[in-house]
Amino acid sequence: MTPSARLAAAIDLLTAMDAAPRRPADATANSFFRERRFIGGGDRRAISAIVWDVLRQWRQAEWLITQVGGEATPRLRVAVRQFLAGESFGDIAQSFVEGKFAPGALARDERRYLETLATNRPDATSMPRAVRLEVPDWLLPHLEATFGETLETELAAMAGEATLDLRVNTLRGDREAARKALLRDGFRAELTELSPWGLRLSGRQPITASAAFKEGLVEIQDEGSQLVVAMLGARPEMRILDYCAGAGGKTLAIAMMMQNRGHIVACDVSVPRLEGAVKRLRRAGIHNAERHLLVPGDKWAKRRAKSFDRVLVDAPCTGTGTWRRNPDARVRLEENDLKELTVKQAEILDRSAALVQPGGRLVYATCSILNAENRDQITAFLGRHPDFVSVVPDAPEVPASLAGSSMLSLTPGRNGTDGFFAAVLERKEG
Ligand SMILES: C[S@@+](CC[C@H](N)C(=O)[O-])C[C@H]1O[C@@H](n2cnc3c(N)ncnc32)[C@H](O)[C@@H]1O
């Protein structure tokens, strides 16, 4: 594809995203490329890179376009991306050419807006803080409360691209074997610093095509997510419940820690998500896991009250810790989403706590960076459940720099991982 054709495709993809504003951008992108199988891998990555840049500069671009009297259309957003990257008006105009696979020339209004931006750049000091930091206005006070003085550094780290982290499945081989296997397929991976099972690659790479992935030697999992599982302290022969298992990302790591011995139940309320776990469990060679679909008034759960050694609650959350991967989520997030999620998280915590046996542990986790979904939930839970206490886990897989606390709090700025939170609670004996 020519650079102009890529630009045209990026504009089409942004238009598709505009038409489905509540749908995650990566879901829209997946459908978009599925319907255009003629677009090869290299072009796909280039088009996605343009679109993800636009998503990362969403509020700033809108602000700039509004300052010169325009409205933020996909075409103008793509053009402003070039402007923000330092391109001149002439260069931008040249990339908007006529042709079958091209975006078409800039319209008169578009030229006027872009020329004004180029010659009379709006004063950045008048840009509101929330716009400059690319967060919704209502969320800024929450982020200020969480990060205080480090807010700008943290948000800068969240504006960058995420690494591609893999977890080596030690049921299939060790990190060195996995690294060599990946190299044979042309993928260069480094050992992660914090997780004992992690390998790290840069950017977006077609890792699912590698033999190591196909044979279940590696699984895609952020290093932070691996450490959350480490906090659970799963061991062979335990009975473990992964209460919000989704497609089994953490179930797989738990089963690995259990060396395939003992019993693990992966629960969720979503059929398609649980279905998604089947192939992954098989690929990883796991045979101590069963799946269970949670339904309202679940008798299954009632019969298993106080019966698990470990219960992991990887709760539905705002996903604010994954903004590097999903920059669109920043602007999609609404105040009401946070309100609804915190209510849901408390309900799930209460329900899952009933399944923990005396002396057993409940690990509550989110991929959020907000206190309201993390520490505040734990404080409120301990207030409602005097039979639980916070404990420091015996988790040798958690590195010394992060161990020693009942809570794990990871951020892209501090740890180079996605933002994750985990708290370990124990049900008192007797
Ligand atoms: C953060 S995701 C889990 C991700 C998964 N543990 C992983 O590591 O890939 C949260 C999950 O909670 C599930 N969920 C939502 N409401 C729930 C409920 N009331 N009880 C149990 N699971 C629920 C969602 O379907 C979703 O799969």
Name the CATH superfamily assignment of the largest domain. Answer: Vaccinia Virus protein VP39
Oligomer: single chain
Mean pLDDT: 95
Low-pLDDT stretches are none
Describe the sheet with the most strands. 8 strands, mixed
Based on CA atoms alone, the radius of gyration comes out at 23 Å
Helix segment tally? 20
Q: How many β-strand runs? A: 12
Helix content: 40-55%
The CATH topology of the largest domain comes to: Rossmann fold
How many structural domains are formed by the residues?
Answer: 3
Question: Shape from CA axes?
Answer: globular
Find the structural class using helix and strand composition: alpha/beta
Bound molecules: S-adenosylmethionine
Q: Give the DSSP E fraction (strand runs of 2 or more residues).
A: 5-15%
InterPro entries: MeTrfase_RsmB-F_NOP2_cat, MeTrfase_RsmB-F_NOP2_dom, RCMT, RsmB-like_ferredoxin, RsmB/NOL1/NOP2-like_CS, SAM-dependent_MTases_sf
Domain SAM-dependent MTase RsmB/NOP-type: 154-428
Organism: Acetobacter aceti
Keywords: Methyltransferase, RNA-binding, S-adenosyl-L-methionine, Transferase
